[in-house]
């Protein structure tokens, strides 16, 4: 019997999924860190010169995680829509326009309510983002008032994709307007600012195009490269041994390398 079905062990499914998402964010951050290692060092170099204790502990942790998630995955019933039809090029183009239009519309909706970042917020973000970007950003705290769910989400589900639960997200970036579903937090602000920097560099149309193609490929918003990078950088920001680095430079590097 599942624990949430057992009256002796009541479990909040919402809390469980919230913790599952938090674990996924940390895994994405670790995946990004390992990817950087692979870019700079060969497995031979790591085996020859890497600290043995760190290598062994890392390998043990990775193996334990693989075994745990493999066991969970084996217990998941086959997806009902495993053979869902692929969207046509016309439908993909339409989805890109839907996303770009939605971001523009929500920017206009929240613009009259939005306020500049406080000097304190700017001071915390200055080592990581340029003053020019921070000066343009406006924020609005919704405090539980949900953002409008896009009407096109129904068509997305009809094609066998599950769109993100935007009403549960900590923050949403509508170009230069950031909406916080509850209260502003530093981690959510960093995540949103990464998206603002991505939109600045790529342009809204290209950003929407990359987001849609990434979502079609991975079928989950957490693994869209644009999102993965934002999750990774915000996790890096809140680490106990946080170091100063230019997040905008990181975004430029990913754009230049075509990694989005």
Q: Could you describe the 3D structure shown?
A:
This protein is mainly alpha-helical and 260 residues long. It folds into 2 domains: 3-74; 89-257, no CATH class. It contains 11 helices and 4 strands, in the order H-H-H-H-E-H-H-E-H-E-E-H-H-H-H. The chain has helices spanning 13-40, 43-49, 52-74, 89-110, 119-125, 131-136, 153-158, 186-202, 204-218, 225-237, 247-257; strands at residues 115-116, 138-141, 171-174, 177-180. The protein has a 4-stranded mixed β-sheet with strand order 1-2-4-3. Strand 3 and strand 4 (177-180) form a beta hairpin. Helix 8 (186-202) packs across helix 10 (225-237). The protein is globular. It starts with 12 loop residues before the first helix and ends with a helix.
Task: Record the SSE blueprint.
Blueprint: H1 13-40, H2 43-49, H3 52-74, H4 89-110, E1 115-116, H5 119-125, H6 131-136, E2 138-141, H7 153-158, E3 171-174, E4 177-180, H8 186-202, H9 204-218, H10 225-237, H11 247-257
Parallel strand pairs: 2-4
Antiparallel strand pairs: 1-2, 3-4
